[in-house]
Amino acid sequence: MSTEAARGHLEEGLVLVDAALAAAESGEWEQVSELDARCREAAKAMASELQGYDPRPLLPDLVRLRERHRRLLALAEDHRDELARASRESRRGRQGARAYEANT
User: Fold this and answer.
1) How far is CA 18 from CA 15, 37, 58, 72, in A?
2) What distance in Å separates the CA atoms of residue 3 and residue 50, rounded to the nearest whole number?
3) How far apart are CA 68 and CA 80, in angstroms?
4) What percent of the chain has pLDDT over 90?
5) Model pTM greater than 0.85?
6) From CA 5, how far away is CA 48, in angstroms rounded?
């Protein structure tokens, strides 16, 4: 266990979160899910490697990872809200169609 091993996992996490951001921006949400899971695994491995070591040398990259993950979450929340809005509109459309059919 070492800081260098932890740095390797952290760098892997940064690559994965960047790939997840690109996938999210392209609307490839299944790929986002897979990449996010792998990023979380890298973060857990990094934390395990840091046991007993000072994490401060990794702080700038940890902050970058956190900020990029926050952007990913914001994109996911926007997509979720868009899907919910589309679902509500579809439901209203079906209700309107049923009401029309009932009155004809």
Assistant:
1) 5, 13, 18, 9
2) 6
3) 18
4) 75
5) no
6) 10
